[in-house]
What we know:
Layout: H1 10-19, H2 30-37, H3 41-53, E1 57-59, E2 65-67, H4 69-75, H5 80-99, E3 102-109, E4 112-119, E5 134-135, H6 141-148, H7 152-159, H8 174-187, E6 190-193, E7 200-208, E8 214-223, H9 232-249, H10 253-257
Antiparallel strand pairs: 1-2, 3-4, 3-8, 4-5, 6-7, 7-8
Helix pairs in contact: 1-2, 2-3, 5-9, 6-8
Domain IclR-ED: 70-248
Domain HTH iclR-type: 8-69
GO molecular function: DNA binding; DNA-binding transcription factor activity
Amino acid sequence: MANSPSGESVISRAMRVIDAFGAEDALLGVSEIAERADLPLATTHRIVAELVAERVLERDSHRKVRMGTRLWEISQRASREMDLRMAALPVMEDLQSLVRSHVQLAVISGGQVLYLERLSRRNAVINLADRASRIPPYLCSAGLILLAYAPREIQAKAAEGPFISRTPNSIRTGDQLRAVIAASRQQGYAVSYGLMQPTAKGVAVPLFGEAGRIVAALSVVIPLEADHLPIVPAMQAASRMISHGLEAHQVREDDVWHAPGAEPSR
């Protein structure tokens, strides 16, 4: 694979171009992409043109650039994430009808929590997580429960930080994180009290795959002042149902913690 003068491969530079797009920035000019990707403008023009030719990106009538259909096509093909989503979605829908709030499915990817699905509810509390969004694990209940059942070396790396505070309640030290994940492991679920959004509380339970090892997290976001204890049994029942489906798909712990890029990047 040809490299740039800096030693960076073509694929790495193309991924930087793709990563320039965010959930709220679906349409960008080439100069904006170059700035976000930290690439020379001429290089960005060339990479964008090649990606447009391959339908990875596409241009609108004003020559602005957005994500193309090919990435969507690829994402819909069989994968561990698709297996997880297919096994979880029917149960998530039932759970949402009961709790009447946001219900989410998440995994660890590249050291961050990646949300595979989010079922929203009109007039529910503000929820900053969305489908395909990433959040540091110490800032959300899904991340806390995933860390609670993670191998010790993963927990140790997460406790090294750094920690970015979003609210006065955010976890700021490794000692705080270790205490929270220890309590979460002991009680079998995690609660995040306004870590990301000061008016919201997250509750998460683990989802288990082959050999009873954690592979994902199921979470609910409710108002901070709401009592979460009444919904925990329903979430645990949903966890058992989804986990049974995941066993059939043979999703393994190795796929979660030891796949390329799965360990926290510190």
